[in-house]
Design goal:
The complex is a heterohexamer of chains A (637), B (129), C (282), D (124), E (148) and F (359). Chain A contains 24 helices and five strands. In chain A, strand 4 and strand 5 form a beta hairpin. Chain A is mainly alpha-helical and 637 residues long. Chain A has a domain of 293 residues. Chain D is of the alpha+beta class and 124 residues long. Helix content of chain D is 19%, strand content 21%. The chains are: A mainly alpha (637), B alpha/beta (129), C mainly alpha (282), D alpha+beta (124), E alpha/beta (148), F alpha+beta (359). At the A-C interface, helix 19, helix 20, helix 22, helix 23 and strand 3 of A face strand 1, helix 3, helix 4, helix 5 and helix 11 of C. Strand 3 of chain A pairs parallel with strand 1 of chain C. The complex binds NI-FE oxidized active center and iron/sulfur cluster (3 copies).
């Protein structure tokens, strides 16, 4: 399967190219053509995965394992270097530990050499690759226009765009690496690259805050990452060296795989920003918006849930799985609750990402076929809708010069198209016929039947969480469409590339909503069938019909809008009888002219960010320690 | 039933703040400030109460010199002072909550401060359209 | 019954039933206050009158969202009575409500805005319990289909007493009755004037009233599910609970939203969640 | 509270079903002002003391005019009338789409008093 | 029979009255008079109301308020002026701040006399207003059809 | 970016029976700033003294407010009588006291109802107003007017009550007392009422004094300030004890008013027992000259009628300092930091009567 190699190496090539190209229009051409090629290739990979069973592929290069090892050392070396320079000694320490562990692993692996195919691809890889390729590519293209404006707005920050785009593509390359790796050592290598890339991207603005947050991201991901070499040690020490292959490990069943899987899942938890690790993702918001979009929708965090999803069958019915699911559940609830108290659009998106990942982790943690089905759908829907939201918020940010939701009031008159797309994105995140809700429906179905009392616990968590999510999304929607005074329509400043990317993503959101049964039939269910021997009917035809009915209703409704806007006579809004002296202004007490200002509720007395995160970090640490304990005890036994 | 005579102590404007302080420190409650017009002159009366006995302080006033507000001593005085400022046109200085003439908005400025009621009444011509 | 027939019957009959129930509700309320009260068909007159008024609005889009609200509430009800998946019913219900809230937001008017926020708080307060009702019913019936639930031979309420209690608790929110009529109420005397419906008038307001009536029928339909196929008992329960709600409406003042949401969540947790948790262990 | 509510329910409504049942009136209720024009000497005292300026009296025309929608039925004029020809009746004036003014023309010679009903001119 | 007449919703505003008439308007809602018998509801919101029950003589700053409320009411609508103050200004007619009757600001359809107007009169007034409401509706319909 | 909501509250607001305006600045629903603005009922009637005969002016002073109209009339008369040095018949003073107490009860019941309504307790509103109708019946029966009584005259009152009437009143009192007990119980014990009123709108004892609160507001904060204790009119012969509570929150103020309903009944019984026989009105000759501050207790607290005359039939100045005006500063103080839902409760808790306040 040379396609896999292509997908890994081609972005690398582009990355190298971009790093040296200085001229803007050349960069533009390279980025666009690179993104298009990567996108097409990833779709081809998807198409292949539909028809075929899992394919395995050994790289026909000798001693490539050593190369990977050297790569690991280089990465660690770089991290040690920067962390020492920035006096982040904790980071240094963990990297050193990791390095030592890795050397031990390498020593064992060399002495106990097993030949396994390094790369493989199945339906899940296909889906993931399509997400990375298409959405990642779109984000890269979007970044072209965005970064230009970004530097125009921040002349004080160093313009290192060549490096920026280089890292973006490097990131994509590493992501492809993760999803196509069968050899876990390879996977770890790519894993570390993504950690490093995210660090570099987050510190891009080069402000103090950015650097601080970048190191936080590095630290948390390294802590998680350190679990992976331990897992390798466990695998190798038990003596089954071919289990270092992902596919082999998973099919070995819970007996052998549970402990390594648990350890790797902890790394996944860190990467997917679950409590107690979540704060890095929120901190990552300092980076330019395309970076956030990339980290949040298709890469980085998705690597975390991808790896947990991979091991999901191992977790079915196991205590570790349940604990992981609980971490996910708690994260879902707490992050949603915190999102209520945020007015910064990107922070809301960040917390909602964390929350959704929590849901995915919870689905994976219970490990049933149904749960996994829901998880994969969630991954798909989330990637598309979130990237749409991030990118459109980025666009809005450049037009209104604020990320604050309060400032987006009445956006619908100023930028109707962009607002429409944000609305589609938001609807995609929580409203009924759209993506996430289908998945929520599925996850409820999944939880209610799994591992008796705990499944219900998760159901209860979702029950509360879904109310909370509705609150913060709906209030945002409300803000967008609340029109105080119609503003001049003005969308002309938006770069065409940005606009077209947004169109594509909104179209994708809707297409995927319509197309999810197809995805389910042709991709997810076959994959599940290989993982679980029998798979019951996951969603009945009648329910799909109902969802389609709703979708149609929602989509045709706007056509009646014109009728309503025509038929009514305008009257001033009700201000207790006080006339508006001009639109939105009334004369209040003391003769002061007051402008009507209506902000949303943030309920921060109840949903206080600090308190909730403190509590849930506490619970998270407790659960993680519990998991590690079980692993140690289990390993010792 | 005949009630006892009410004594009113007349003081100068400059004594006002001091005297009010004395009342305040003696634990009096501010009951009201009233204003009345005598020819061209105005008089302000501050009424205090302790143990159900009213005491009155009176100062002369006119529409030009501003009277120091006692709202730093008795916050509640701001309502009376604003009212008098609006109805009589007597300026006050340093009102804690100054409405600047919007406390009671009237159709004629300072209706009580003008000798004659100016009835700005239009005849009820076009009642119904 | 044929699901399409059932849905059609719902669409036609629900207003009739709903109007009668609200009419009786208003009379009973009046009697509890020592008044005579309006004629039974008063809600019907009100709606018809609203449809006769001239249309005014701050922005025309308001009515559009309310139209969506009405459509989705009807859709919800139709889905419910056609025996569909109860989770989908709930989600459609939520969708409908979000449209109502959006409609209230559009006008950018202070009272409507606060009403909308309160409406969302209410949504947040009741959502957990409603989902738990669905889960509880699933545990008993082993199916998410309303169609299966109404054929349950036993009395699910016996297994779901806590869920039932919790549901009745949040029913007060849903029926917009005191003490939880936070966002809008049938009486004008509240701090939000008319809350989320402040900026609606005429036809639009008529649609809201109609939607409320549909909603009432759906909510009462939920009570039915607790009694399986025992039609008689469920009818009795619906009457009893309605009277109870009216009594509570008349015996309480409106509470603050903080109290409303915390109490709703607490009841949900203790009665609802506790109940289904216990069931899952059993 | 529940008790009170139920008591109300049992006791039945306290409502006077007004248009179908007669309104409450007491013998001293102040409803509206009437004049016995036969005794009136058009002295104008009632006009002078009316706080609402509702009365107009013209001695030369021998008219006594009452702006019915301006009279606050205080009874002040009644106590001033030297001839006791004013009195207050218990019934209320009906609402009307326009303000009414009652003009009563006194008889040149003592004569039958019917002016009241006929004298109602609709203003506007 | 029009449904308008069966479900008149009122809005009440106190435009500088002495309260005497206001409390009588409120008293109409209470058990003893209970105007809900006629389907009358006090909406408190001009956008929902059909009948504007206004008391008091409308002072300077209330003029704008009254106009604003009247404007926000959807057609067809009627105005009922309750109390002598609202009819003509009554005892306050000569006050500098009173414009003298509601009719100086918005067109009035029914005057209810009395100081304070008794609840019974108010009920009578509203019942009279209903007829006018119905006429207005018909007039409105014909003009709309005429223009269409 | 501030997360503020700016809401105009009033003048036309269904929870306010009368027009007053507040600029509310909210964060979520917490009030961070509340500035009142008044003037929506300002008619300028004090200016009418310059046009009307001081005797006819009684009818205008009654119409300062339709709720506390009787006491306004009585206080005005009292002020003029003091200026003129008139000794009015004792029976008239007793009658004034009886009617004053009736009008107090009617005002308090009205308030209790509106207060219940502000909390969204419709049924209680209805119940209070149902009881209130009984008081109005008595007032109408004895004076001829439900809300504007019109019996005060300079020099006495214009209507008497006969023994039969007194007996009738006495037989009605136990029924009223039972009604009051029932209402008081609800206001005192109902759980939802408690959550809405307890601890809401705190006004400490010192603050109440400092801000010049009067009436139930100050009595709810622990000061026994009640003009009836000065023994004006017939009150020196009646056994009057003020109702005082110390909590200083809305609940306390509510219970003070509820308690005063009973006091009023006691006073009425008292007065009926002790009323002397005699005239009710003395003829008044001449014009007043001088000035006087008449202080009486209105339902909402102490009212001051200031009368200044210079021997003409028109007075020079009449000024009314109404309790509501005095209670505005405490109101502003209480509103700071409350919840939006509490705004109506707190605003009503001072029993604002804008008609009085602005005249
Ligand atoms: N009580 C009383 Fe008044 C007086 N004086 C007060 O503010 O009600 Ni209208
Ligand atoms: S009753 Fe009063 S208002 Fe009417 S005419 Fe006589 S004095 Fe004037
Ligand atoms: S006071 Fe009597 S007699 Fe004189 S004009 Fe008036 S009604 Fe006639
Ligand atoms: S008509 Fe009389 S009772 Fe009514 S508001 Fe005017 S003065 Fe008051």
């Amino acid at each position: 399967m040379e396609l896999l190699i292509f997908l890994i190496l081609f972005p690398l090539l582009i990355a190298g190219l971009l790093a040296v190209i200085q001229a803007e229009h050349v960069r533009r051409a390279v980025v666009i053509s690179g993104a298009v090629l990567v996108g097409i290739a990833s779709l081809v990979a998807l198409a292949f995965s539909v028809t075929s069973q899992a394919v395995f592929y050994s790289v026909p290069v000798n001693n490539i394992g050593i190369l990977v090892f050297i790569g690991d050392i280089l990465i660690s070396g770089y991290i040690i270097f920067v962390s020492l320079k920035a006096r982040q000694y904790v980071v240094t320490g963990i990297t050193v530990i990791q390095l030592i562990l890795l050397c031990a692993v390498e020593y064992l692996a060399l002495t106990n050499h097993a030949h396994i195919p390094e790369l493989f691809s199945d339906q899940l890889s296909g889906i993931m690759s399509a997400i990375i390729g298409v959405i990642g590519g779109l984000i890269c293209v979007y970044a072209l226009g965005y970064m230009r404006e970004y530097h125009a707005e921040h002349p004080d920050r160093p313009d290192t765009r060549p490096r920026f785009f280089g890292i973006m593509f490097l990131f994509l390359s590493a992501m492809f690496g993760i999803i196509f790796s069968n050899n876990l050592l390879w996977l770890f290598f790519f894993w570390e690259i993504t950690t490093l890339c995210s660090y570099l991207l987050i510190r891009y603005p080069n402000t103090d805050e950015a650097i601080k947050n970048a190191f936080r991201a590095l630290l948390f991901n390294l802590i998680g990452g350190a679990c992976i070499p331990i897992a390798f040690l466990v695998i190798l020490l038990t003596g089954e060296s071919e289990l270092i292959g992902l596919h082999e490990l998973v099919s070995a069943g819970p007996g052998l795989a549970l402990i390594p899987a648990g350890l790797i899942a902890v790394a996944g938890l860190a990467k997917s920003a679950q409590f107690p690790f979540s704060s890095w993702l929120v901190g990552a918001m300092v980076a330019p918006t395309p970076v956030s979009a990339l980290l949040h929708s298709s890469t980085m965090v998705k690597a975390g849930v991808y790896i947990i999803a991979r091991f999901a069958p191992v977790f079915e019915g196991e205590l570790i799985g349940i604990l992981i699911a609980l971490i996910g559940g708690i994260t879902f609830l707490a992050a949603s609750a915190i999102a209520i108290s945020q007015s910064n659009a990107k922070k809301v998106l960040a917390y909602s990402t964390i929350a959704n990942l929590g849901l995915i982790v919870a689905c994976c943690g219970v490990g049933t076929a149904e749960g996994l089905w829901a998880a994969i759908l969630l991954i798909i829907f989330h990637a598309i809708a979130k990237s749409l939201l991030f990118l459109s918020v980025g666009t809005v940010e450049h037009q209104i010069h604020s990320r604050n939701i309060e400032d987006m009031s009445g956006l619908v008159t100023k930028m109707p198209r962009i607002t429409m797309m944000i609305l589609i994105g938001i609807a995609g995140m929580f409203l009924a016929p759209f993506g996430m809700l289908i998945s929520k429906w599925a996850s409820l179905h999944a939880f209610v039947e799994s591992v008796p009392p705990f499944g219900i616990l998760l159901v209860i968590i979702i029950a509360y969480g879904s109310g909370i999510t509705a609150f913060f999304w709906a209030k945002w929607m409300g803000k967008l469409i609340a029109v105080g005074e119609p503003q001049q329509k003005d969308e002309s400043h938006i770069p065409g590339s940005e606009k077209s990317i947004l169109y594509i993503l909104s179209a994708l959101t809707i297409v995927v909503c319509f197309g999810f049964p197809v995805i389910s039939w042709y991709l997810i269910e076959p994959w599940l069938l290989t993982m679980y021997q029998s798979v019951t009917e996951l969603i009945s035809l009648s329910n799909i019909e109902i969802m389609f009915m709703m979708l149609f209703l929602v989509l045709i409704m706007p056509f009646s809008l014109a009728r309503f806007t025509r038929s009514a006579t305008r009257v001033p809004r009700y201000l207790c009888g006080i006339p508006e002296s001009e639109t939105m202004v009334f004369t209040g007490s003391c003769g002061i002219k007051r402008e009507i200002e209506l902000s949303n509720y943030y309920l921060d007395t109840i949903f206080c960010e600090k308190r909730i995160s403190r509590i849930s970090v506490g619970i998270g640490i407790f659960l993680i320690v519990l998991i590690l304990n079980i692993i140690i005890v289990g390993g010792g036994l | 039933m005949k009630q006892p005579e009410q004594k009113i102590e007349t003081i100068t404007v400059s004594d006002l703040i001091h005297q009010v302080h004395v009342y305040h420190d003696d634990g009096y409650r501010l009951v009201q400030i009233s204003c009345a017009q005598e020819g061209d002159a105005f008089e302000l009366t501050y009424t205090f109460d302790r143990d159900l006995i009213l005491s009155h302080l009176r100062i002369p006033a006119d529409q030009k010199t501003s009277i120091p507000s006692i709202s730093r001593i008795y916050l509640a005085s701001f309502v009376y002072e604003n009212e008098i400022a609006d109805l009589f046109g007597i300026p006050f200085s340093g009102i804690a909550v100054d409405y600047k003439g919007t406390f009671i908005r009237t159709s004629v400025p300072h209706p009580f401060g003008t000798p004659q009621i100016t009835t700005l009444k239009k005849k009820q011509e076009d009642q119904h359209e | 019954m044929n699901p399409f027939l059932a849905a059609a019957l719902f669409i036609i009959l629900a207003p009739v039933v709903g109007v009668l129930i609200t009419g009786l509700d208003r009379i009973l309320t009046a009697r509890m206050q020592g008044r005579v009260g309006p004629p039974v068909l008063q809600p019907w007159y009100d709606i018809r009158k609203l449809f006769q008024k001239k249309q005014v609005a701050v922005w025309g889009a308001q009515s559009f969202f309310i139209f969506c609200y009405l459509i989705f509430i009807i859709f919800t009800g139709a889905l419910f009575f056609a025996g569909g998946d109860i989770l989908l019913v709930i989600f459609a219900f939520t969708l409908g409500h979000v449209f109502l809230v959006l409609g209230a937001y559009v006008s950018y008017s202070p009272y409507a805005h606060i009403g909308a926020e309160r409406e969302l708080i209410q949504l947040m307060a009741v959502e957990p319990m409603i989902i738990i009702v669905a889960i509880g019913l699933y545990q008993v019936n082993d199916s998410f289909l309303v169609g299966d639930m109404i054929n349950h031979p036993g009395l699910p309420i016996l297994l779901l007493p806590g869920v039932f209690l919790g549901f009745i608790y949040i029913l007060t929110f849903k029926l917009r009755k005191s003490p939880f009529d936070l966002a809008t109420s049938h009486h004008a005397h509240q701090e939000l004037v008319k809350g989320s419906t402040t900026e609606f008038s005429g036809f639009t307001l008529g649609m809201i009233e109609l939607a409320h009536i549909y909603e009432l029928v759906v909510m009462l339909g939920f009570i039915w599910l607790f009694f399986g196929n025992n039609l008689f008992l469920s009818a009795v329960a619906i009457v009893v609970i309605m009277v109870l709600e009216i009594l509570v409406d008349n015996c309480t003042s409106r509470v603050r939203w903080q109290d409303a949401i915390t109490s709703a969540w607490f009841v949900t947790l203790v009665a609802g969640a506790g109940n289904i948790f216990a069931l899952s262990i059993m | 509270m529940a008790l009170t509510v139920l008591k109300n329910l049992v006791k039945g409504p306290a409502t006077i079903r007004y248009p179908y049942q007669p309104a409450k009136v007491t013998p001293v209720t102040r409803g509206h002002l009437v004049v016995n024009i036969n005794n009136c000497i058009f002295c104008g005292l009632c006009r002078a003391h009316c706080p609402a300026d509702a009365i107009e009296v013209s001695k030369p025309d021998r008219t006594w005019k009452l702006h019915q929608f301006q009279c606050v039925i205080c009874g002040c004029c009644v106590s001033y009338c030297p001839k006791d020809c004013l009195s207050i009746e218990q019934t209320y004036l009906p609402p009307s789409p326009a303000a009414t003014i009652v003009t009563v023309t006194g008889p040149d010679e003592p004569e039958k008093n019917e002016g009241q009903e006929e004298g109602i001119n609709k203003k506007l | 029979m029009s449904y308008l007449q069966k479900s008149p919703w009122i809005i009440h505003y106190d435009a500088s009255s002495c309260n005497g008439c206001d409390i009588e308007v409120l008293a109409c809602l209470t058990p003893l008079y209970d105007v809900e018998r006629f389907g009358i509801l006090n909406t408190g919101n001009p956008k929902h109301a059909d009948i504007f029950v206004i008391t008091g003589g409308v002072n300077e700053i209330n003029r704008e308020v009254v106009k604003n409320i009247y404007e926000q009411m959807p057609h067809p609508k009627v105005v009922v002026a309750v109390g002598i103050c609202a009819c003509s200004g009554g005892v306050f007619k000569e006050c500098y701040n009173i414009s003298g009757g509601v009719a100086t600001v918005i067109p009035v359809d029914v005057y209810v006399p009395g100081c304070a107007a008794r609840p019974e009169s108010i009920i009578d007034g509203i019942v009279q207003a209903l007829k006018i409401l119905e006429q207005k509706r018909i007039a409105l319909k014909t003009t709309v059809e005429g223009t269409a | 970016m501030s997360k503020q909501i700016i809401v105009p509250f009033g003048p036309q607001h269904p929870v306010l029976p009368e027009p007053i305006h507040l600029d509310l600045v909210l964060e979520d629903e917490r009030v961070v700033e509340a500035i009142p603005s008044i003037g929506y009922v300002h008619r300028g009637l004090e200016k009418l003294v310059e046009k009307r005969d001081y005797k006819d002016y009684v009818f205008i002073s009654e119409r300062i407010c339709g709720i506390c109209s009787f006491i306004h009339g009585a206080t005005y008369c009292q002020a003029v009588e003091q200026v003129m040095g008139l000794e009015i018949p004792r029976r008239a003073e007793f009658l004034r006291a009886i009617w004053s107490e009736y009008s107090r009860m009617h005002s308090h019941l009205l308030w209790l109802g509106c207060f219940a309504d502000a909390m969204g307790y419709e049924n209680l509103f209805m119940n209070c107003w149902k009881v209130r109708e009984k008081i109005l019946d008595v007032l109408e029966r004895t004076t001829g007017g439900r809300v504007i009584q019109g019996v005060n005259r300079v020099g006495g009152v214009s209507r008497d009550m006969d023994a039969a009437e007194f007996r009738r009143i006495e037989t009605e009192i136990p029924g009223l007392r039972a009604d009051y007990t029932e209402l008081t119980r609800i206001f005192d014990e109902d759980l939802t009422v408690q959550t809405r009123t307890k601890g809401v709108g705190m006004l400490s004892k010192d603050m109440a004094w400092e801000l010049g609160a009067v009436g139930p507001v100050i009595r709810g904060s622990g000061h026994a300030v009640d003009a009836r204790m000065t023994g004006y009119g017939a009150y020196d012969e009646l056994d009057f004890k003020p109702v005082v509570r110390t909590e200083g929150d809305c609940h306390a103020r509510c219970l003070v008013r509820a308690g005063e309903l009973f006091t009023s009944l006691d006073l009425i019984e008292n007065a009926i027992d002790r009323i002397p026989k005699g005239d009710i009105l003395i003829p008044v000759k001449g014009n007043p000259s001088g000035e006087y501050y008449a202080q009486t207790e209105q339902p909402r607290g102490e009212v001051i009628h200031y009368v200044k005359a210079n021997g003409k039939k028109n007075l020079v100045r009449h000024r009314v300092r109404t309790p509501t005006l005095a209670n505005v500063p405490p109101l502003v103080h209480m509103l700071a930091g409350c919840e939006l839902a509490d705004v109506p409760v707190i605003v009503l808790t001072i029993d604002p009567c804008i008609g009085c306040m602005e005249r």
